[in-house]
Amino acid sequence: MLYPAPLATTAAALHNGTLNMSSYIDELCDRIDQMNPLLEALLPEEDRRARLQNDAQALQARYPDPVSRPPLYGIPIGVKDTFRVDGFSTQAGSQLPPNLFAGTEAECVSLLRAAGALILGKTATTEFAYFEPGPTRNPHHLEHTPGGSSSGSVAAVAAGLCPLSLGTQVIGSTIRPAAYCGIFGFKPTYGRIPTSGLIRCADSVEHVGYFTQDLPGIELVASLLCSNWRSAPSDRQPILGVPDGPYLAQASEEALVAFERQLSLLQQGGYSIKRIAALQDIEEINRRHTRMVFAEMAQVHAAWFAQYESLYRPRTAAALREGQSVGDEEWAQAREGRITLRSSLEEQMAQTGIDMWVSPATTEPAPEGLHSTGSPIMNLPWTYTGMPAITLPAGHAANGLPLGLQCVSATMTDEYLLQWVAPIADLLASQFKRAG
């Protein structure tokens, strides 16, 4: 259930008029009518096609001259149902009354609208961006999860229902599902994309992320959404660091074997790779991050949970109850731990001369069944520290499902990260296509 939908080339064709916007929308809506009942990536909407065509006509009337058209002119985007979007209700994958979540449109959504994007619709999410799964299926194999919590957003892009979608990440909800579904997922440095207008999960590690099928599309959107984005040309090959030790050992044998194959391919391509003992206390890092997330979830949901506890699903309710037990001192220490760990990792990078950490994006390929969205622990330390991370498609597992390579650079080096990974993505693509 896959269809090519590269963002950058589609945006260029719409911008210069070689792709007719009305016909393009009809094509997407036909695909949605055929595939979404099976995938359940987009939330249902009556008369989606008519609304989109009306929005497209208004956009065309506003920008008759191609020269004046904004960069995402006519691009339909999926928006995770934790973002407020004018004209759409927000329920955050829950059974709570949607009026509780009404408010001003998310700033990043407004930025994309200003860049010419059209709202394709809301995408399915796990309950309140935590672990209770939504109904969405992996387009590579319908009996497997697409990952969470940005499940609908990733499946919509991977299946070609839209070329761009918004997600979030507080543990691994952008990087992990992108790997499971074989596309690019980018989580910038903490704070570089505004989170206002979002139904928050955990403020201290709340990241806006997004998905595309193409790396040029990732770069295009970064220039529009990330604060103070700048041109940062780099013509040198980055030095790669492998965080050896208990962190890496969290991945399955199959994921580690695939990772070694990826490293071998990169070495053959001329990349210097250093194995560095890092994240030795990963169990404590995992515990601190998780307890902090629970505490902040409990703060966000305090009034709602007090009134509507019976409407919360079991895993979400359990997380909120545990969060209520986290004291102020433990919470403050966990928040301080983000800065300490980031400083430690970036000091290691400086001392050893590495530019990027590389690791498996997930512990394994997408698990079978829809009862779980898979483990995010390979993504957790990079989210905890707020460092920019990206998933690159990187081959297939024995069962044919995609695998991803996770690349991470120092905070506020997002521009370099996206340039450094471009030739790596090209190298991996040959393996990815052969395996597929």
Automatic annotation (TrEMBL):
The cross-references to InterPro entries, in alphabetical order and at most eight, read:
Amidase (IPR000120), Amidase_dom (IPR023631), AS_sf (IPR036928)
> Which GO molecular function entries does the Swiss-Prot or TrEMBL record give?
catalytic activity
Pfam families reported for this sequence: Amidase
Q: Report the residue ranges that make up the Amidase domain in this protein.
A: 25-418
**Where does the source fall among the domains of life?**
Bacteria
Name used for this protein in its record? Amidase
Organism of origin is Reticulibacter mediterranei
